[in-house]
Amino acid sequence: MRLPAKIIKKIRENGSKKETNFQKNLEFYPKRDIPYDTEKGLPLVHVEQNYFNFNDLVASDYVKEKLRNILVENKSVDLLSTYGLKPKQKILLCGPPGTGKTLSSRILSSVLGYPFVYVRFDSVLSSFLGETAKNIRRIFDFIEKENYVVLFDEFDIVAKNRDDKYEHGEIKRVVNNLIQMMDEYEGRSLLIAATNHHKLLDNAVWRRFDEIIYFGLPNAESRALLFHKYLAVVKRDDDYDYLSYVSSTKGFSAFDIVQICQSALKRTILSHRNVVTNADIEWAIKDQTIRKSIVNKSDL
Prior knowledge:
This protein is an alpha/beta fold. Helix content is 45%, strand content 10%. The longest helix has 18 residues, at 278-295.
């Protein structure tokens, strides 16, 4: 079945369009001492260099426009400063899991040419009184030394609503300290917080962000693009019916569809075939539907 002209156009753009801002030869910054948690002896952050661009992201035009605006502002720091303005540096990405928040952060890192710093909250949280706040301070001291793109993933862990009666005093102190550190931050790194549970965030935390971007579940057009993008490594059989796949995956995240495509490809390859069939894809959709039912604790 032939794809509509609108989707074909987007596929060609994704496959051939080159991002002029993408830097293939990123310069590594001088290595600094990674901050560690003194209780467990684990690193508080993971630093990596990424090589992604916007062709890797299937998202709404709204999301891409917001991300590109952030890039333009952070590439124009000197120009903005002549008018007494600053770029948006504190960004909140929220929405359902598997919708592209982490990938978007890595794309911003790649295009800006900044090392990517992933904050490890499994190391940040401490059982010692006051140590969690100290760990967050160590992270802020570290990222203030160079230009980074910093991702605070699962941000709700340390920025929960202080009015929650089930939270103890230590979490409230952590939130107070976090707000203070965000207010006092004067470095040039791009700070990104990501959460799947934005309703849990403390009201005061929201005001600390220069930009808030909501990542929704992919619409029908995006789901069609995802199927095409991630099944493109092998030939598709004549019975390829993208309309059926798009209809069957309403409410699925981009991550869900990537997993469907990977499962269909593995089934094809391990069966020693070089063509993915409608049966392969339908089997993978059914398998992912069962997985989602288990995760959501709903009846199969």
